[in-house]
Amino acid sequence: MTQKVFEENIAVLREKLKQRLIAYRYSNGSYRTYMRIFGWLEKFISECGETVYTPKLGYLFIAEYRFQTQLSPHEFNRAKVLVQRLDEILSGKSFTLRLEDPKPTAPRQFREWHEKYCEHLRQVGSSESTLRSHTRYTRRILESLAPNVTSYDALSAAHVYDYFVNGDKSTNQSYSVVRRFFSYLHKNGVTKENLSLCVPSPRAPKPLPSIYDSNEIESLIAAVDRTNPVGKRDYAIMLLASHLGLRSSDIVNLTPDNVNLETKTISIVQVKTGNPVKLVMNTEVEKALSDYINNGRLQSAHDKIFLSSRAPFMPIKAATCFAVTRKYFGLSGIATQGRRRGPHALRASYATALVTKGVPYPVAQKALGHENIESLKYYVRIDAKRLRNCALDVPKPSGAFAALIGDLAEVTV
């Protein structure tokens, strides 16, 4: 079978582009910009003696466009996006949210077994977030080792030691990830030594969660302007995090099928744990979600509830939730005092509010969707009221210690 050749008459392509831009609700300004750049592309194709557009001509247009010094970097980026949009039209694909960077790979001498390790993680059922973090951390150490190590056979304990002592800026999580990777290599006979034994095991104290009291949460929520679609969306996102304790990954994956307005419940399978959880919405959350769905959300073929505020109105990513929360922390004027300002801080505040109000731990565990009740220890550490009840009386000093502090009356001979 011959490979399909993607090409289109330039006049037909112009009309298809117009229809796509209108269908995806691009603003008038963006529409005019793309059509202006399309005019330059049309002129370029004509000068090449062609009447049809192909992805190769689009590539050549960008290569030529790069040297137009009178044009701004912003317009150059728009030109690249235009060519991507045209290629999507030719191949029958929907518009993507943004240009995707090439997928990074490990250095050539390490690539084969690094890819095998990633495939191994898939086969054992690792979640996508785990797969991403393991891929990133292991690639980082291999990139650092590459200038001095030509193969896995040449990799030694000295190289690993030097990496962690002199060059590593990793978090504690990366140590365990790299340890697991080296263990996999040794079990499969790729390295002569079990280099996982050379990876340090730091024991840094786990920091207290960043929490905000009820007054601060109210001030944060009040900073949202709900008179426009973006504000309606942001308001609903922050209420889901602060009033129900939903993670960003679960918020962005919400669909209408997850929400039952009759029973006032949200039923999901958590992205992080894979466990189902059913939450009851309070009146505030219910109204905010209904307001966004009915009055703020544009009609879209996408099934996710929360969409971006700009064309082509794709489902938002978890990073958007973080940007939204930080935005209103800034507008509210709350003194964060070194505390985190992302959606997880709202989840932590919700969890802390539950345990400090005396909600039984099994109930709080169910509300937060934790797999293990031990996870609540992270929030119990700041439940000062109940921890105070567990405090023991300080014993009276005696013996040499009493003498040392001057309490000689307690010294026994």
Helix content range: 40-55%
What is the architecture of the largest domain at the second tier of CATH?
A: Orthogonal Bundle
- Tell me the domain tally: 4
Radius of gyration: 29 Å
Put simply, the count of helices is 18
Instruction: Using the coordinates above, name the CATH class of the largest domain.
Output: Mainly Alpha
Residue-averaged pLDDT: 82
The CATH superfamily of the largest domain is identified as: Intergrase catalytic core
Named CATH topology of the largest domain: hpI Integrase, Chain A
Largest sheet: 3 strands, antiparallel
Strand order, sheet with most strands: 3-4-5
Shape: globular
Topology as a string of helices (H) and strands (E)? EHHEHHHHHHHHHEEEHHHHHHH
Distance between the termini: 101 Å
Strand content: under 5%
Contiguous runs where pLDDT drops below 50 for at least 5 residues: 1-5
Count of β-strands: 5
Please state the structural category. mainly alpha
